[in-house]
Specification:
Blueprint (H helix, E strand, L loop, with lengths): L30 H11 L6 E7 L7 E7 L5 H13 L12 H14 L6 E4 L2 H9 L3 E5 L5 E4 L29 H9 L7 E8 L5 E8 L5 H12 L10 H8 L11 E3 L2 H9 L3 E5 L5 E4 L10 H5 L2 H31 L6 H10 L7 H21 L2 H21 L5 H15 L4 H21 L1 H17 L1 E2 L2 E2 L64
Antiparallel strand pairs: 1-2, 2-4, 3-5, 4-5, 6-7, 7-9, 8-10, 9-10, 11-12
């Protein structure tokens, strides 16, 4: 698929300002006509609730409300809409016939009779119907060509809980949930600045899913923001957007690559840190995961806990992950290649141990590795689909029983069981789920090349993967940056985790000319605590 190039930033208007400026279905000045349109539109919809009433008992002032049961808070409807309109209205001029009094009547209802926090005035019934499906209440008034949309959302939602997929021992524990505004509030709480921008897009012909484009103005690259806008505009008319994965598949650069070009996260602190780096986030209504872009491969091996721990411990854990990544990708293929083609590379005692253990095994090393790897993948998938306690039991007991039975039946050698177990442990060290899938997939082609060509095949396979990664792009940025192309200033957060005062750079994805250090970082190491000169000195803290 041809990669979409970055475009120069242009002056953008609101996503709905150009195509939705004219009402698709203007509100009529007849309440009966508007009610008939809504009732015909939602025919055979048993969850639609509507009620027609008179305001303050005055027959000339007719109104009606529409909302969906289960999507709206019924207490808000009663306390903030029906009770003020039915019981608390005190309209001075009962004769609202001319245009001037009609406008006063409309303003009076808005300013005096609706105590709800968020009220939107619309002139399009299509917009009102969409707001109802989002959990709002549509309030129609007779002889008015405008209507009110009152915020009264009350659909069931999951509370903010602890992280399950991105577990850390130190740092914030709260994660995103499905409601959009809960997720945006978690981000806003961490970045209290007017430079934090949320741009709304409505995607999907049937789902009408709300997607928020989140970035820090003046920090994020304008070319990235313009390109994300363009790609989101191109998918407005697709049938459905059910989750962030749907958006990812439509806007990524290389959809047939096994490596992800967008990053998932369920942690608000990770999103805030990424926005400060100059990245862009996509928050999808109904999804507990936020998409981050652009994505560099080294970011898949970084954990939020690296930045909450001490420098040395954070660097050590990062080295452990790189070692686990290397083991998970190459250990089975190296075992197959060495035992099949290069036994002279092994010490004599180890070679004799492997040869003795393999005596009576009917399969070559490649078939052994393939059987054990596929068995482990089956166990992993089964443990995920089963309930928590049963899944953990199946994963542990199943691996022990199958491994012991396979060795006892002389189907595989004991060394192969050890290799597969260490490979599995190495794959578990990768902190992101989307990074573990490509590592598990490239393991099988590498084993096939090892069985065919030995270590030469393993090296050819690794070179092919490396060439693919070098040519891969994420929204125009090289996937292996800052390793290829090499950027020395950014290596302080790759193999090592440098102190925060040493990593105080301008955002990573800005233009290179604007990427400069803060002026105080060079003198940070030479700070000295000033002692109190004498007893009774009150200068401290001033």
């Amino acid at each position: 698929m041809k990669r979409l190039p970055l475009q120069k930033p242009q002056t953008m208007v609101s996503p709905s300002s150009s195509e939705n400026s004219a009402p698709k279905c203007p509100i009529a000045n007849s309440l009966e006509q508007n009610m008939r349109w809504l009732q015909e539109r939602y025919i055979r919809c048993s969850d639609l609730v509507y009620r027609q009433f008179t305001i303050s008992g005055l027959q000339e002032l007719q109104g009606a409300i529409f909302y969906f049961d289960g999507m709206t808070n019924s207490r808000v409807v009663h306390d903030n809409i029906l009770q003020p309109l039915l019981l608390d209205a005190e309209f001075i001029n009962n004769d609202a016939k001319d245009a001037e009094n009609l406008q006063k009547y409309f303003s009076f209802v808005k300013q005096r009779l609706l105590p709800a926090g968020e009220i939107t005035i619309i002139d399009d019934l299509e917009q009102g119907a969409l707001s109802m499906m989002n959990g709002d209440v549509l309030l129609l008034l007779d002889r008015c060509e405008q209507a009110f949309v009152v915020d009264a959302k009350g659909f069931p939602q999951r509370s903010v809980s602890n992280s399950e997929n991105e577990v850390v021992l130190r740092g914030p524990q709260e994660v995103f949930t499905e409601p959009l505004r809960v997720n945006t509030a978690l981000i806003r709480r961490r970045l209290r600045t007017d430079q934090l921008k949320f741009e709304e897009f409505i995607l999907g012909r049937y789902t009408q899913t709300t997607v928020e484009l989140v970035y820090l103005e003046g920090v994020a690259n304008d070319n990235i923001i313009a390109e994300v806008r363009r790609r989101l505009d191109n998918i407005k008319n697709v049938d459905s957007i059910l989750d962030g994965s749907c958006v990812e598949q439509y806007i990524e650069d290389a959809p047939f690559s096994v490596f992800p070009q967008l990053q998932y996260t369920e942690r608000p602190d990770k999103v805030a840190a990424s926005l400060l780096e100059g990245r862009v986030a996509l928050v999808i209504d109904g999804s507990p995961n936020v998409l981050l872009l652009p994505l560099m491969f080294v970011q898949l091996l970084q954990s939020p806990e690296d930045y909450y721990n001490r420098v040395v411990s954070g660097t050590f854990m990062r080295w452990i992950r790189y070692m686990g990544l290397l083991i998970a990708a190459t250990l089975p293929s190296l075992y197959v290649a060495i035992t099949s083609y290069h036994p002279e590379m092994l010490p004599l005692s180890l070679l004799l141990s492997i040869a003795t253990a393999r005596e009576g095994v009917p399969f070559p090393a490649f078939v052994e590795a393939l059987i054990m790897e596929l068995s482990f993948e089956l166990l992993r998938e089964a443990s995920i689909r089963l309930p928590g306690a049963i899944g953990n039991t199946i994963g542990i007991v199943g691996a022990l029983v199958i491994g012991e039975a396979a060795v006892s039946a002389h189907l595989v050698a004991p060394q192969m069981v050890i290799v597969v177990a260490i490979t599995a442990i190495g794959s578990f060290t990768v902190p992101s789920v989307e990074a573990s899938y490509p590592i598990r997939l490239i393991r099988f082609p590498l084993m096939l090349l090892a069985a065919a060509f030995g270590l030469y095949g393993v090296m050819l396979g690794l070179l092919a993967v490396l060439v693919h990664l070098v040519n891969l792009r994420s929204f125009g940025f090289p996937y292996l940056e800052p390793l290829a192309p090499l950027k020395l200033n950014e290596l302080r957060d790759v193999l090592v985790r440098a102190p925060r005062w040493l990593m105080m750079l301008r955002p990573q994805f800005r233009e290179p000319a604007k990427q400069t250090e803060f002026s105080f970082t060079r003198d940070f190491w030479h700070r000295r605590i000033q002692p109190i000169k004498q007893r009774g000195d009150h200068s401290r803290g001033q």
